[in-house]
Amino acid sequence: MNITANMVKELRDMTGAGMMECKKALTETGGDMDKAVEYLRERGLAAAEKKAGRIAAEGIVDTNVSEDGKVASIVEVNCETDFVAKNEKFKEYVAAVAAQAAKTNAANIDDFLAEKWELDPTKTVKEQLASMIAVIGENMNIRRFEKLTTDNGFITSYIHGGGRIGILVDVETTAVNDEAKEAAKNVAMQIAAMNPKYVKREDVPEDFIAHEKNIIKAQIMNDPANSKKPENIIEKMIEGRLNKELKEMCLVDQLYVKDSDMTVGQYLESVSKQVGAPITIKRFVRFETGEGLEKKSEDFAAEVAKQMGM
């Protein structure tokens, strides 16, 4: 397969590896991007998906939580420019989308778009989106939503950076008071800052762990210094590196950002003692605007000239 410069650039953007290493990885894997990423990781030339979640599209994330904290939603709505993302009309529209998502029974984004728009039942959600595009003058997209409900505890939300990151945290507890709510807000801020993938280690899929062990083993064995080490030592090295990776990925094992002398799990235990009831995190949702989307890069002067017909 012919390896193009664009392919090399894409792999370099994803992994941070050098151009020659990226070209070699693509050549060795027949141009398969995913396999090329693994090829580089196995040789210690790339961090795991270093830039795969890069922020690319404009827009905002917003949340809607019921007064009793039992029902909540989170949505991401994209637009073309940061200017529109900061527009009050756009923000009001996204808030209305979040309110609609809190009432929906839709299982996916297509079903959601086909629903009647709560504020004007003569239109569907998709038709209202089209109307907003006409008013604002930019292409817009309701990219995703999620709805959470709880019976035992409450849901809290946190918005960071004016809508760049949004968090929902489902807290399981019988202590629904100010102390518990403050703890939940602190945990939501932790999730925004540290981007965990799972609540606890038991939530990590076994196939993911097996896959990571293979990657780590390949990294270790590619180091000549480890070639003569016995198998049991190699296994301990694999477990050590895996445990370190999982501590960063699992919320309760992360160091608590407000007090690095304890983990998030230990922080929750201390608050549980204060309020006299267990406080546990059942699940969380974290949306970051534009993650995984590629921003269109254009010459601004050329774009202005194009619009003016020059």
Account of the protein in words:
With about 300 residues, the chain is α+β, with helices and mostly antiparallel strands. Among the domains are: about 1-50, Orthogonal Bundle (Helicase, Ruva Protein, domain 3), CATH 1.10.8; about 60-200 and about 280-290, Tetrahydropterin Synthase, Chain A (2-Layer Sandwich), CATH 3.30.479.20. Helix content is about 45%, strand content about 20%. The protein contains 12 helices and 10 strands. The chain has helices spanning about 5-15, 20-30, 35-40, 80-85, 90-105, 110-115, 125-135, 180-195, 205-220, 230-250, 265-275, 300-305; strands at about 60-65, 70-80, 115, 120-125, 140-150, 155-160, 165-170, 255, 260-265, 280-290. The protein has a 3-stranded antiparallel sheet. α1 packs across α3 (about 35-40), α2 (about 20-30) packs across α3 (about 35-40) and α8 runs antiparallel to α11 (about 265-275). The longest helix has 19 residues, at about 230-250. The model is unreliable at about 45-55 and about 295-300 (pLDDT under 50).
